[in-house]
């Protein structure tokens, strides 16, 4: 291969691997939408609204061709990370779900969903759990601290100024810190947000028992805890850890 074509191959490899990240989870249901241009137009609105405001719930089209969409970034994520996440989400949901009417895609930094039925303001717990297959060594202490932290950040999330976000840490031992974050979709009332989080956390024993880390990807709320930093802002000595353990996913 001559140097120019080698360069081109590497260049395109780089573009295509850097282009769009894999989602954490996705689901597609329902009939095919005939007016598929409406999906593209809706996705444009969802992307620009999310980049501007971190959240949007809107619709596109009229009558039986109307499609409803919601998109949101996690409240702690920068504008730049939000923008690239929601653009990946819009690109990939179109590939993964083709023209299906009910489509949802979850990333760590953002969530996007559309449907030909209006779904705003309702608690929807369909989605998945992503569970670290490694267990903690001292479940009794860990589970107490985890329950306290989840309580604390859930009550933070339902305060009006929080926009559905709660996050915090708890020291498990002198060398081990627990990190927790909850995020409701911003269309929910505070009461519905509290309900979604309570269901997600209440199901910890069924899905996440004794696990070192767990993520709840519901359609109305996101809950995550880990023994390493994963949310922003990072403390001076912290860095994001993208390689911590193996996860299995369980659909809800
Ligand atoms: C998020 O933004 C930070 C700082 O701009 C960057 O270093 C990091 O790679 C971004 N993460 C993702 C997943 O885009
Ligand atoms: C972790 O704990 C769960 C629940 O107690 C148990 O079912 C599972 O087998 C454990 N996994 C490992 C790898 O020890």
Automatic annotation (TrEMBL):
Q: Which Gene3D superfamilies match?
A: Gnk2 domain, C-X8-C-X2-C motif
Q: Which PROSITE patterns match?
A: GNK2
Q: Where is the signal peptide?
A: 1-20
Superkingdom of origin: Eukaryota
Q: Where is the Gnk2-homologous domain?
A: 21-119, 124-230
Its cellular-component GO annotations read: extracellular region
Please tell me where this protein is predominantly located: secreted
KW Secreted (keyword) present: yes
What InterPro entries does the record point to? CRR_secretory_protein, GNK2, GNK2_sf
Arranged from A to Z, the UniProt key words for this protein are:
Repeat, Secreted, Signal
Answer whether the UniProt record assigns the keyword Signal to this protein. yes
List locations, semicolon-separated.
Answer: Secreted
By sequence similarity, the record places it as follows: Belongs to the cysteine-rich repeat secretory protein family.
Question: How is this protein named in the record?
Answer: Gnk2-homologous domain-containing protein
Organism, scientific name = Handroanthus impetiginosus
